[in-house]
Amino acid sequence: MQEQQVRAIFLSDIHLGTRGCQAERLLEFLRHYDSAYLYLVGDIIDFWSMSRSIHWTSVQNTVVQKVLRRARKGTRVILVPGNHDEALREYVGITFGDIRLEHEWVHETADGRRFLLLHGDEYDQVTRHHRWVAVLGDVAYNTLVRLNGWLSWIRRRLGISGYWSLAGYAKRKVKTAVNFIFDFEDSVMHGARERGVDGVICGHIHWAAIREVDGLTYINCGDWVDSCTAIVEHLDGRLELVEWRSAPASQPIPLPSANDAPDRVALPS
Ligand SMILES: [Mn+2]
Fold first, then answer.
1. What single-letter DSSP state applies at residue 90?
2. Can you name the residues that pair with 256 across neighbouring β-strands?
3. Ligand 1 center to residue 223 CA distance, Å?
4. Domain count, the chain
């Protein structure tokens, strides 16, 4: 696979240390994209969930090693802790293994726009912990994420390519969930307006987006638990929402073909 050079990569809500973490997909994404800046916008390692049970795989290790290697090789890596890794908030301003921890950060794009980076949990009106669990119900959300594993398997058996998120479908269909997304976006943008920036890049609600809101840009990185999304800044400063849809690495690798390009889509903003 050809590596694609972008200016910056923004990732949030990876939730390393949990069963839901889609580390294989993230690794594929990281193998495809390389960047001068790498921003980790919170809930990267899920200490909160790990205090109950730990699910740490060798692929998750590889993800961590890949990030550390990039930092060592000159990629500017900045981690903004979220609520699931808020233990790291004690260390803001400190650099660990070339990764700098910051509570917030302002990133300037190649075309001169200034974006405030924050995780976003402080703007969450529902809960300071796991919002989708609160919105859709603890059992319901976790069941949806697990059911999706089976659904993906069935889809592959039927020869349907790409990845589809059942939890994502529920979020779009359940009215309280949709309202929750809007309330969060409003609240974040209200905060941004007072800061005099051109936009915000956040995470937390596991709902990726690039939207213009009254002259400011609202951007959410999404997550690597069920939607597998990231934001990339191209060399000219253009920001793109990437939804990573290629097959899981554990599947047999198909023979190279003419349309071997990664199956990813850019969502409309
Ligand atoms: Mn969060």
1. G
2. none
3. 10
4. 1
What's the CATH code of the domain at 31? 3.60.21.10
The whole-angstrom separation of Cα 155 and Cα 148 is 10
The Å distance, Cα 155 to ligand 1 centre, comes to: 30
**Nearest 5°: phi and psi at 173?**
-95, -25
Q: Which residues surround ligand 1, an ion (CB under 5 A)?
A: 43, 82-83, 121, 204
> Which domain, by its residues, includes 73?
4-266
pLDDT in tens, the chain (269 residues): 578 999 999 999 999 999 889 999 999 999 999 999 999 999 999 988 888 889 999 999 999 999 999 999 999 999 999 988 988 998 999 998 899 999 999 999 999 999 999 999 988 876 555 566 666 666 677 777 778 887 888 888 888 777 778 778 777 777 777 788 888 999 999 999 999 999 999 999 999 999 999 899 999 999 999 899 999 999 999 999 999 986 544 443 343 333 333 333 333 33
The two tokens of residue 47 are: 């200490």
